[in-house]
Automatic annotation (TrEMBL):
It comes from the Bacteria. It holds the Pfam family SGNH. Keywords: Acyltransferase, Membrane, Transferase, Transmembrane, Transmembrane helix. Residues 415-651 form the SGNH domain. It comes from Turicimonas muris. Residues 14-336 form the Acyltransferase domain. This is Acyltransferase.
């Protein structure tokens, strides 16, 4: 990506200047998205430039009948691999120093995919999209663009050679370009696939290729007047600027709006001798930025992503982000002068290509080894290792027995349904993952039959459900959540004497993804003013139903929530002594909803309330660690050990 053309007589410094504009827009977008929301179109500028330059090289050699696949790929390896290898090794070392074993395992997955130019495929398979917060904490997320280009380079030369031999090069490329462009709309419902895929980005690279063919074939620029080149360059600048201003993450991208940076870049390339191209884009400083654009692109994002990982997802302050820009730039300059340039001056031979490929393979193998070794927990001190071993994320698997007995016809793969085969349930737990994290302690602490029914992100109240991008979470056209039918089975089962309601209740007040009904009027996801009223109404109604059916009810209030990632406790540079906060901080997000639920529950004689805060926190301090074991597996979910701390209080109430 962002490759400088060979230093031959037809070298165009203005193209490196155009690269400079592209890299600056990307850097400022990633660093200050609040000020440059459309800066990600810099990637589209790079795509067009790459298609233009690579196609120019291929077409000229085809015309001279001296195109060589081995020479083409040897040159690509010489140009791409050194800086990439330096990046992947550097990121691996940084990860080993800074990250907890679970974080390092995620990082080396990216390293392995990046080493084989498959980062775009990895992101399609494992993320919620380019603007997903989890994606923003992936240090190698940005390698998706490099993956798209390398996938393009694998197939494109072969396509060009075949089409050139049958004399259908231009017409076929035009058809492929149009097919690629319109495929964006064929896959419009899958925005993640659209954004990262070669087939939806091919047209951008191919547009550059078609321009290269036209210029080379017709000697177009030599006969185009200076006035027309000035007009072309100015028009291109205008289109790119409009694209920067009007584009944001809400737009379907790529799509029609992508034409602004693509056509704008083509017009700037046509204006080779224009005032702007000659005086601005060809300025030595601008050209230098363009020359290091590949390595700067590789290094601009990791410092930002690592900082967000360390801060638990928070965005660094303005001043810190300025510093991080220069950190990435400094490493990029070092990489350019001491890694990229020396190897670039070597002859592109089979020996060099094999050597670089072997090194890249060893980077991949190292990443795989680290992953198989569970993120190298040996880096931690013994106390950290013991705590980490107890921070499990295991639950009883969803059972066919449970689904057959309680969830048939109402629950699906997105739901939770756990029960012990052969036991008649006397206790039903209803809720979301905050109900599920109690199971280990409860299943182990009583011989009574227990069934748990729940769904991710959905409180244990009827008529409330989560709305997400995945429509399977909701029952279309119905006013009930998918759980309501299952809840009705619990209500009407005379063998079930006790119902435990356990949820992350504060989501009801704060989550943007919940729908509910208030007096037959839907409470929209962002209508927070009605959330408290809706909670009181629905919980009161739900408790009345349980009372009518003579159920004993126990409500487990919100567990305390930590304002930092628990992984920080398992980082080599961190101390277990700091794995906690004051009770005031830990309950800042939960105290309001807990008080509301206490107030509602006090009106019912059949309802008991248990507050995990009094168990997890001691003397005004809440710790993630207790007796050398992890209490929490993330910022708000208990481990199996944590559930054994809460379970005795619940089971004691069940004896009463």
């Amino acid at each position: 990506m962002f490759y400088s053309p060979p230093r031959i007589n037809n070298y165009r410094p203005d193209i490196d200047g155009l690269r400079a504009i592209a890299i600056l827009t990307v850097v400022f977008f990633h660093t200050f998205p609040e000020f440059f929301p459309g800066g990600f179109i810099g990637v589209d500028i790079f795509f067009v430039i790459s298609g233009f330059l690579i196609s120019g090289i291929i077409f000229k050699k085809l015309e001279k009948e001296n195109f060589s696949f081995t020479d083409f790929y040897f040159r690509r390896i010489r140009r791409i691999f050194p800086a990439l290898i330096f990046l992947l090794i550097g990121i691996t070392i940084a990860g080993c120093i800074l990250l907890a074993p679970p974080e390092l395992r995620l990082l080396v997955r990216q390293i392995c995919w990046g080493a084989f130019f498959g980062e775009n495929i990895y992101l399609i398979k494992s993320t919620g999209g380019y603007w997903d917060q989890a994606t923003e904490m992936m240090p190698l997320m940005h390698l998706w663009t490099l993956a798209v280009e390398e996938q393009f380079y694998i197939f494109y030369p072969l396509i060009c050679v075949i089409l050139f031999k049958i004399k259908k090069l231009v017409s076929a490329l035009v058809i492929l370009t149009l097919l690629s462009f319109f495929s964006v709309y064929f896959f419009k419902d899958n925005t993640i696939l659209n954004f990262y895929s070669l087939h939806t980005r091919f047209w951008e690279l191919a547009c550059g290729g078609l321009l290269a063919f036209y210029i080379n074939k017709n000697n177009f620029l030599s006969i185009l007047s200076l006035a027309k080149q000035n007009l072309s360059s100015f028009s291109g600048i205008l289109l790119v600027t409009i694209g920067l201003v009007i584009t944001n993450e809400q737009d379907k991208f790529p799509g029609i709006i992508t034409l602004f940076p693509v056509l704008g870049t083509l017009l700037i390339l046509i204006g080779q001798n224009s005032i702007f191209n000659k005086s601005i884009l060809s300025h030595r400083l601008v050209v230098f930025v363009g020359l290091i654009s590949y390595t700067w692109y590789l290094w601009h994002w990791p410092p930002l992503a690592f900082s967000r990982i360390i801060l638990g997802g928070d965005i660094p302050g303005f001043g810190a982000r300025i510093i991080l820009i220069f950190v990435g730039l400094l490493i990029a300059i070092i990489s350019y002068f001491f890694v990229e340039n020396p190897i670039r001056k070597m002859k592109a031979t089979l020996r060099l290509s094999i050597s670089l490929s072997v090194i890249l393979f060893f980077v991949f193998a190292s990443g795989t080894t680290i992953r198989l070794m569970k993120g190298l927990p040996q880096r931690l001190d013994k106390a950290q290792q013991l705590v980490l071993e107890s921070a499990d994320n295991n639950f009883p698997h969803t059972t066919d027995y449970c689904l057959e007995k309680y969830g048939k016809g109402s629950l699906d793969a997105y739901s939770f349904c756990y029960a012990e085969k052969g036991k008649t349930a006397e206790i039903a737990i209803l809720g979301d993952s905050h109900g599920r994290h109690l199971l280990r302690g409860l299943f182990a602490g009583t011989s009574k039959g227990i069934v748990f029914l729940g769904m991710k992100g959905t409180p244990a109240i009827k008529n409330v459900f989560e709305v997400t991008a995945e429509p399977n979470y909701i029952k279309k056209g119905q006013g009930q959540s998918m759980l309501d039918k299952a809840f009705d089975k619990i209500l009407n089962d005379p063998k079930i004497k006790t119902v435990i309601l356990a949820s992350r209740w504060n989501l009801f007040l704060n989550s943007p993804g919940l729908y509910s009904w208030l007096n037959d009027n839907r409470v929209e996801p962002n209508d927070y003013t009605k959330r408290e009223e809706a909670l009181k109404l629905f919980m009161t109604d739900w408790l009345k139903q349980l009372q009518t059916h003579k159920k004993n009810v126990m409500i487990i209030l919100n567990t305390p929530e930590f304002p930092f990632t628990v992984y920080s406790c398992y980082r080599p540079i961190f101390s277990l002594d700091k794995c906690g906060v004051s009770q005031k901080e830990a309950t800042a997000a939960t105290s309001k909803v807990n008080e509301i639920i206490k107030g509602i529950s006090s009106k019912f004689t059949n309802v008991e309330v248990i507050d995990p805060t009094n168990i997890v926190c001691k003397n005004g301090y809440c710790s993630l660690v207790n007796n050398g074991k992890a209490v929490y597996r993330d910022e708000n979910h208990l481990t199996s050990y944590g559930s054994t701390l809460i379970a005795p209080a619940i089971l004691e109430k069940l004896k009463d």
